[in-house]
Amino acid sequence: MTDPTELPLRPELRGRSPYGAPQPPAAHRLNTNENPHPLPAELLADLGAALGSAALELNRYPDRDALALRADLAAYLTRTSGEQIAREQVWAANGSNEVLQQVLQAFGGAGRTALGFTPSYSMHPILSAGTGTAWVDGTRRADFTIDAAAAVAQVREVRPDVVFVTSPNNPTGTAVALETVVQIHDATGGVVVVDEAYTEFARPGTPSALTLLPGRPRLIVSRTMSKAFGMAGLRLGYLAADPAVVDALQLVRLPYHLSSLTQAAARTALAHTDALLATVDAVKEQRDRIVAELPAMGLTSVPSDANFVLFGHFADAHAAWQALLDRGVLVRDVGLPGWLRVTAGTKDETDAFLTALGEIAPEHRTTLGDSPA
Ligand SMILES: *Cc1c(COP(=O)(O)O)cnc(C)c1O
């Protein structure tokens, strides 16, 4: 193979790493925040029929505007948020990653800047680099929450064109107060993207930023069917915003970007929303069980509104990660000193995780006061 440094690659991409965590074989895979529950049998049957009839028309291009799917997504958002969301406010693409990329193509790009509060979703800076958007790392408090006043000061100083607020945040798990989103929004002239990939798992009393949309045309709320809906393989993400934002995205989306098979499968899944989301409570139960059992092992966690838990402290997080893997449990080393992230799985998976963790904790934990390496 040619030495990649000999290629005329864009200079800002040189030396960067692609997204992706190690995927070594493991009996219990708790590293990518998928919903582990199998899809309901009625949905699988309906998917077969819906994909079969969509296949009859595969000689034709799909509905370029995905009108029926967007209407179904708007109905889901309206039903679950209490906020009236119209089809014209919704846009869908192949995973929320593509939605976010389109937002950056339209509102970021050369000579423009995106700001996010790290640690957060690592794809936000990667998508920024791919679209030629400069990236600035904002900061959080030591407990990983966003200090609204500090965030406003950072926004005023950086003057970003795009601001990312991940709520609930990945990899730390905690949701962001709507008041903080409003203050960040009011401090910038750019667009504010609230990435709500995990919102269905939030603890009670955690409203969605959808409720902030009226009167705020620069606010964008992104969602996905990859997590709570248990459809990560489908690749379906979407956003809600002012219809003017959806119009702007038409300038950068590829024609016919969303295949007819994807549209048919997503609509079928949405028709089974209640059955799909029925597993959310079971996942939250395992999440809360993980949080509750950590202190007895001399460990702690960050409050979680998601389907995962950031837990620690470890003297050497990577050594603890390896020790868990040696016991068949794959979690995520997100590169935060002292911490690891585990996905809340089925009860059996959580049993296996807690058993393995109990075995390795005495050797690997460090007390809160010690500075983790
Ligand atoms: C998993 C995740 C997504 C989902 O991406 P898809 O492309 O929809 O699968 C988006 N944002 C965050 C913060 C995530 O963790």
List the helices and strands and how they pair.
Blueprint: E1 28-29, H1 41-55, H2 67-81, E2 90-93, H3 96-107, E3 113-117, H4 123-130, E4 134-138, H5 148-158, E5 162-166, H6 178-187, E6 191-195, E7 219-224, E8 237-240, H7 243-249, H8 260-271, H9 273-277, H10 280-293, E9 300-301, E10 308-312, H11 317-326, E11 329-330, E12 339-343, H12 347-364
Pyridoxal-5'-phosphate (PLP) is lined by residues 33, 95-97, 121, 166, 170, 195, 197, 224, 226-227, 232, 237.
Q: Give the total of beta strands.
A: 12
Percent of residues in helices: 25-40%
Mean pLDDT: 95
Number of domains: 2
Please give the alpha-carbon distance between the first and last residues: 37 Å
- CATH class term of the largest domain: Alpha Beta
What does this structure look like?
- With 373 residues, the protein is α/β, with parallel strands linked by helices.
- The protein folds into two domains: 23-38 and 278-364, Aspartate Aminotransferase, domain 1 (Alpha-Beta Complex), CATH 3.90.1150.10; 41-271, Aspartate Aminotransferase, domain 2 (3-Layer(aba) Sandwich), CATH 3.40.640.10.
- 37% of the residues lie in helices and 13% in strands.
- It has twelve helices and twelve strands.
- It has helices spanning 41-55, 67-81, 96-107, 123-130, 148-158, 178-187, 243-249, 260-271, 273-277, 280-293, 317-326, 347-364, and strands at 28-29, 90-93, 113-117, 134-138, 162-166, 191-195, 219-224, 237-240, 300-301, 308-312, 329-330, 339-343.
- The chain has a seven-stranded mixed β-sheet with strand order 2-8-7-6-5-3-4, with helices on both faces. The protein has a three-stranded antiparallel β-sheet with strand order 9-10-12.
- A hairpin with a 6-residue loop joins strand 9 (300-301) and strand 10.
- Helix 3 crosses helix 4 and helix 5 packs parallel to helix 6.
- It is globular.
- Pyridoxal-5'-phosphate binds at residues 33, 95-97, 121, 166, 170, 195, 197, 224, 226-227, 232, 237.
